TrEMBL record:
<dbReference type="GO" id="GO:0050660">
    <property type="term" value="F:flavin adenine dinucleotide binding"/>
</dbReference>
<dbReference type="GO" id="GO:0033539">
    <property type="term" value="P:fatty acid beta-oxidation using acyl-CoA dehydrogenase"/>
</dbReference>
<dbReference type="GO" id="GO:0046872">
    <property type="term" value="F:metal ion binding"/>
</dbReference>
<dbReference type="GO" id="GO:0005737">
    <property type="term" value="C:cytoplasm"/>
</dbReference>
<feature type="domain" description="Cytochrome b5 heme-binding">
    <location>
        <begin position="10"/>
        <end position="85"/>
    </location>
</feature>
<protein>
    <submittedName>
        <fullName>Acyl-CoA dehydrogenase</fullName>
    </submittedName>
</protein>
<keyword id="KW-0479">Metal-binding</keyword>
<keyword id="KW-0285">Flavoprotein</keyword>
<dbReference type="Pfam" id="PF00441">
    <property type="entry name" value="Acyl-CoA_dh_1"/>
</dbReference>
<keyword id="KW-0560">Oxidoreductase</keyword>
<dbReference type="InterPro" id="IPR009075">
    <property type="entry name" value="AcylCo_DH/oxidase_C"/>
</dbReference>
<keyword id="KW-0408">Iron</keyword>
<dbReference type="InterPro" id="IPR009100">
    <property type="entry name" value="AcylCoA_DH/oxidase_NM_dom_sf"/>
</dbReference>
<dbReference type="GO" id="GO:0003995">
    <property type="term" value="F:acyl-CoA dehydrogenase activity"/>
</dbReference>
<dbReference type="Pfam" id="PF02771">
    <property type="entry name" value="Acyl-CoA_dh_N"/>
</dbReference>
<dbReference type="InterPro" id="IPR037069">
    <property type="entry name" value="AcylCoA_DH/ox_N_sf"/>
</dbReference>
<keyword id="KW-0349">Heme</keyword>
Length: 518
């Protein structure tokens, strides 16, 4: 994914010249027809100096690719001093925007020769532009933040806002009218296939915590404000603040006392005697983006039920970091509301009727998560295909082992099955109005997400077995597989646990059964 940081020097050298530089005082080696001067690097090499002394003056291509990710060479391109006379590099290095040439590393619609009924030229233009943006602008920061656990930079947020990428996170809708999107797409053209593309391309930054840190809180909360705000001026101001990247928003429903069980929520909102304010008291847990949010779309108990209120951050709102198994770059928070006064026009929907406000966004949230996890599985297939061709064990590449090919067959099949089902559901979303989607697609999307994360479970398990110890190591060859195995559960739990969603799917089918003996 990383791009080349510098050009290969134009100097040409012979293999005989390289062979002479075989001591600690001058230690060269050949990797992929190019010559590397490792003399000053030996002591800094994370794999130690002994191994480098052993290959001094030699062609170390297969030794190198047996142990390193290709991006290591790109990162250390400055060590390259020339190319072997009459030879040229064979390794394909990824440039920003490129499609992968590894089979199954791209969905079928992006694979040369293959066709799809779902995607138009508009989708293809958007895909190309978003891929380039992710490779160039998001990937490097995402990698760094995933590791150090700090939050997305304002600089990147500003860039995403300027390109209207932030606005696309809410899905199709009026908020895109008049905006020109990446690839020159008019906002009015943006449909659920464009939406799928954005979700899948963003997850190519392979940083699961950062992926959620990147405006996913806003994605699942600003939609509720847009749909349910009673005060149009407030709705428009807040939309503008968030889509321009000046302010951040999150959804604050779950509590230590209640997860998916909204009826168990203990945070209260009580009206002041003059009726002008709600006073909010209580706590929230596992709130994605809560650490840096300026607004909290908060589920509260009111007089006779449950209500949703847009709470601006003030001194009576405290947020504390929660460390989960993915990076704190997601800004996951524990929140305390201590007598927070909020004007009554911040109520979303009707008092005591907040359940529909929360439910209204679930389909899109679950569907978007499925887009991401489907793309993650594909990335893992790519990692495993590359590794099993590159890795030499018992004297031959790993791919020569039938048991490895069986695992790859299962991984590829699961990935393609999820993508095909996802596209079929997406097509229905494009052709049903909002009310029909709410009525008819809750079940299928629940089943789809639940199936996708079950597949992710199997794919993660197989991938670790293929990578061995490296699949358990946070750096080096297996780091993407290690991350997926550690984090795929976020998609299985967030937005509705696997079993709950599977059950929802069947219960919705029960409602649609004909009322007759069949
Ligand atoms: C341009 C030349 C090289 C560079 C820039 C380089 C860089 C690195 C880096 C960054 C790592 C840390 C692991 C990772 O992030 O992938 C590493 C690990 C390692 N390197 Fe190299 N390396 C080079 C050549 C070699 C060669 C030629 C050999 C062996 C003959 C070698 C053997 C190792 C070993 C054994 C490890 C530890 C791998 C592990 O823990 O799985 N390196 N190297």
């Amino acid at each position: 994914m990383a791009q080349k940081t510098s050009q290969t020097p134009s100097r040409t050298l012979t293999r005989a010249e390289v062979a002479k530089n075989n001591t600690e005082d001058s230690l060269w080696c050949i990797i992929d027809h190019q010559v590397y001067d490792l003399t000053d690097f030996v002591d800094a090499h994370p794999g130690g100096s002994v191994v480098l002394r052993q290959i001094a003056g030699q062609d170390a291509t297969s030794a190198f690719y047996n142990l390193h990710r290709q991006e290591v060479l790109q990162k250390y391109a400055s060590l390259c001093i020339g190319t072997i006379e009459g030879e040229k590099a064979e390794v394909i290095s990824h440039q920003a925007g490129d499609l992968s040439r590894v089979p199954y590393a791209e969905p079928l619609w992006l694979t040369p020769i293959f066709k799809s009924p779902y995607y138009s030229e508009s989708h293809r233009k958007l895909q190309r532009a978003v891929r380039e943006f992710v490779d160039r602008d998001i990937y490097p920061e995402a990698q760094q933040k995933e590791e150090d656990g700090t939050y997305i930079s304002q600089e990147l947020v500003d860039k995403m806002a300027a390109n209207n990428l932030l606005a696309t996170r809410l899905g199709p809708g009026k908020h895109l009218a008049g905006r020109t999107l990446l690839g020159g797409i008019p906002g009015e053209e943006f449909d659920y296939f464009h939406d799928l593309i954005v979700a899948q391309e963003l997850s190519r930054a392979v940083s699961r915590g950062f992926q959620d840190g990147n405006a996913s809180g806003m994605m699942i909360s600003l939609t509720a404000v847009r749909q349910w705000a009673n005060d149009a001026a407030l709705r428009d101001r807040v939309t503008d603040e968030c889509l321009s990247g000046r302010k951040f928003m999150c959804l604050a429903i779950t509590e230590a006392f209640a997860g998916s069980d909204v009826a168990g929520i203990r945070t209260t909102a009580t009206k002041t005697a003059d009726g002008k304010h709600y006073v909010i008291n209580g706590t929230k847990k596992w709130i994605t983006n809560g650490m840096f949010a300026d607004y909290f779309v908060t589920g509260c108990r009111t007089g006779n039920g449950f209500s949703v209120i847009l709470v601006p951050r003030d001194d009576n709102v405290t947020t504390r970091k929660i460390k989960t198994s993915y990076s704190t770059a997601a800004a996951t928070a524990y929140i305390e509301f201590d007598n927070v006064h909020v004007p009554v026009n911040h109520l979303l929907g009707k008092e005591d009727q907040g359940f529909i406000v929360i439910m209204s966004n679930f389909n899109h949230e679950r569907w978007a998560m499925t887009c991401g996890v489907a793309r993650w599985m594909r990335t893992i297939v790519e990692e495993c295909l590359k590794w099993s061709h590159q890795r030499i064990v018992f004297g031959k590449p790993l791919i020569q082992q039938p048991v490895i090919r069986q695992k790859l067959a299962a991984m590829i099949s699961r990935t393609e099955a999820v993508q095909a089902w996802l596209e079929s559901v997406t097509y229905q979303m494009c052709n049903l109005d909002y009310a029909q989607q709410s009525k008819l697609l809750g079940g299928p999307i629940g089943l789809l997400k639940s199936y996708a994360t079950r597949c992710a479970h199997e794919v993660a398990d197989d991938a670790v077995n293929i990578f061995g110890g490296r699949g358990l190591t946070q750096s080096g060859m297996g780091k993407v597989v290690e991350q997926f195995h550690r984090t795929y559960k976020f998609d299985a739990i967030l937005g509705g646990a696997e079993e709950v969603l599977a059950d929802l799917g069947v219960r919705q089918a029960m409602k649609q059964m004909p009322k007759a003996m069949l």
